[in-house]
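USER: Please consider what follows.
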Amino acid sequence: MIHSDHDNRFLSLAAMLVSSNDAFMGISKIRLPKKARMISVPAYDAGAEANDESCSYIPGPPCGNADTASAVAGEGFVHIHAGIHGIGDLDAAQFDWRNPVAKVAIRRVREH
């Protein structure tokens, strides 16, 4: 639950998909609605590193290599992520996703 007032009427959030080296989901400056709203959120590719799917560069499960980045440059721009294809250490059948990767439910709750 988040708290808002008249000066703070927008929601932005981001989270990394930890079974990837540079995938994330995020929404930016969504106006907080008066009625309930559901937002489908796709995965984005940060474009910072090559998508080699090597456990050497994946910080979360199943690899757990925190603070390790690939020296191979990525695309250099943010775009919709293509998912896991099984070209490296990850099994696509287990770790691939289809967009959207998250659904954000927003509803107004008044505190008394």
Remarks:
- DSSP finds one helix and six strands in the chain.
- The radius of gyration is 17 Å.
- The chain has a mean pLDDT of 90.
